Amino acid sequence: GYRVSLQGNFFGRNDTYVTFPEYNPRKHIKLDPPMNIQSNATASKCQIWWSVWNVPWYLTEILQYELQYKEYSMSWEVALNKTLPRSLPQVEIEATEFRSGIAYAARVRCKVSESENSYHSQWSEWSQSTVFQRADVPKVSEIILNTRTIQYLLIPLSFGALLYLFWSCKLSSRSRQKASPALTFPRQLLSFSHSIVCTMGILR
């Protein structure tokens, strides 16, 4: 600890004023702002990471970060703040918190965690901002959805066709006494089933 005093000439008199009877530097820390903040946004999540500079190694593991983000065109006064639970210099946010097609800006600041007793600090200045935009949902999913719909519709149609073929073969066997139902119907059924399987394989 230190004893901090202010000494000077006041109204022609030399006086000394004790400002801090006992001053401990580790209880009055202000860190430099984080730097190199970067971001990467996809259709499902947004990743933001940064680095700290000029911070002693024994403080890096007890740091606390606060993230602030907003729409790029808006003011920082209306930004949303998120206090991060971990001391890691990174965060991952679900993309549902962002609107598609809108650019966002984010920045971060740090201080020693409030749960730490040996050190105490105030918030650092805000870092430089990073700009990101949520990616659109790929259109491939729509194609897959349409393919599955066709597959679901093809199943009842296949059964209907099989029933129609069955009754056609039954009626044909009655009109042709020489024809054998045991030979005619299985061949047609196998041929139709093979075409259905090939069609399903192409759609998948």
UniProtKB/TrEMBL annotation:
Cellular component per GO?
A: external side of plasma membrane
Molecular-function annotations in GO: cytokine receptor activity
Q: How does it sit in the membrane?
A: Single-pass type I membrane protein
Query: Which keywords appear in this protein's UniProt record, sorted alphabetically?
Result: Glycoprotein, Membrane, Receptor, Signal, Transmembrane, Transmembrane helix
Give TM segment ranges.
149-167
Predominantly, its location class is membrane
Q: Does the keyword Transmembrane apply?
A: yes
InterPro entries per the UniProt record, alphabetical = FN3_dom, FN3_sf, Hempt_rcpt_S_F1_CS, Ig-like_fold
GO term, biological process aspect, one: immunoglobulin mediated immune response
Which cellular compartments is it found in? Membrane
Describe the location of the Fibronectin type-III domain by residue ranges: 33-135
Q: Does the keyword Signal apply?
A: yes
What is the protein name given in its UniProt record? IL9R protein
Name the gene behind this protein: Il9r
